[in-house]
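Intended use. Records like the one below are meant for learning the mapping from a protein sequence to its folded structure. Do not use them to infer anything beyond what is encoded.
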Amino acid sequence: MDVWMYQDSLNVVQQAAVDRFNAEHGPDVTATMVEVPGDGYEDRLRTVMGSDDQPDVFFNWGGGGIRPYVEAGTLLPLDDLLADDPELRDAFLPAVLQAGQVDGVQYGIPLRGTQPVLLFYNREVFAEAGAEPPRTWEDVLDLVEVFQEAGVTPFALAGATPWTEQMWLQYLVDRYGGPEVFARIQSGDHEGWRDPAVLRAAETVRDLVERGAFGDNFGSVSYTEGAASALLAQGRAAMHLMGAWEYSTQLADAPAFAESGLGYVPFPAMPGGAGDPANLVGNPTNFFSVTADSPHTEHALAFLRTTADEEYVRDMVANGEVPTTADAAEHFADAPDPEYAEFQYELVQRAPSFTLSWDQALPPSVAAPMHTEIQRLFNGQSTPERFTDALAALR
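Structure written out for the chain above:
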């Protein structure tokens, strides 16, 4: 039974689950975790889902990313699983579980922690500059100047990996216009890209680039190679806007920095913005889905149940993740940094809105060219006006 996973440092949790599953269910069936490199994960998944060699269980982000597979009839609905196992259904935060639905039908079971995008910073670099983490947008702009004068890149940015740049636009659009702006776009109203909040966000991006907020070489920095995270850990960058998994990444690659040098704050409010500064963007979590033609359906569903087991939740917490289970807070005392776990969990609990990452909420036919346009904007190959026009033309 093949279990496809996006390859990263968090996979130790899923590998442990596979090992426990095999110990319980072998030799009737053997689960094998197949780690697929992040750079090509979605492309490889699309290819294999159109073949006779589909995985039995696979990692995904829910939302628009799995809609094509639902429409093609290649995913197994999971409503019966949850109806037959109310303990599993009630184990997860309802809003998170809902993110694994398409048109009201459940197709995903949460497999990782909640993943809001946060603003991480290097405490030592800030202390040396006599600076405080930003609370307002004016603070952000002041810090760009402070760190440039200190010879430190203000913000690490893996510009060779466009979804990292997308995070900036997601928050800026939300802070300027509120979650309704992207909700309109996600519903299929392409003219939503022409909302004034999108144009203001694009103008703000260009302003940041021209101020040198991301340095001169961000377009050649790759996220999957760990370069941006290394810049932060090594003190060559002061801040890094990234998903909450950045903590686990640093814990694996730079444990001393993760334990004492990594700071974190929410994304600040924008002056005159209509969006609530408590709103979040990112991924409520990741999901496991089951292919409809899997010869191991019964065992695949049994494997999905393991994500709510106490051992699984404990492993997530120990790895620096914040589980999406209703009892997650009971385990925070065992987290590498209980304060960070509580900070993140409280942000998610009190957020009026949690907008799914654009490239996961939109179908691949829109998400891929959108990434191209985002890179063009950041690289100075497009203007804010041309950027909004190009996105409005996507279908």
